[in-house]
Design goal:
- With about 100 residues, the chain is mostly helical.
- It has a domain of about 60 residues.
- It is about 80% helix and about 0% strand.
- The protein is built from 3 helices and no strands.
- α1 runs antiparallel to α2 and α2 runs antiparallel to α3.
- The longest helix is centred in the N-terminal third of the chain and has 30 residues.
- The radius of gyration is 18 Å and the shape is elongated.
């Protein structure tokens, strides 16, 4: 007799991959949406909504890059998110 399998099966891995893909696509949409809204003067560069879209998008895409060990893209998103976070804090403090 063989020992029972341990750990998540293929269905769990597939669900995790779909979830990670969804997070990555949502992050991509957030970053592109922020860029478009800023480019068409709907949101300004210091608007908290613009900065939150960039921060959330960078976190989503960065997490997927971390999981896939895509280090160049991960560091791009890490810095993108850091810049957005600092700018968000400055915008909130400025009122």
């Amino acid at each position: 007799m063989s020992a029972p399998a341990t750990g998540p099966g293929p269905a769990a891995n597939s669900a995790r991959e779909r979830f990670a893909d969804a997070v990555g696509w949502c992050g991509t949409a957030a970053i592109l949406g922020a860029f478009a809204l800023n480019s068409f003067h709907v949101l300004g560069p210091h608007d908290a909504r613009y900065l939150l879209l960039n921060l959330g998008g960078a976190a989503g895409v960065g997490w997927v890059c971390w999981r896939k060990r895509a280090w160049q893209a991960f560091w791009l998103e890490a810095v993108w998110g850091l810049v957005a976070a600092v700018a968000l804090v400055r915008a909130v403090v400025a009122g």
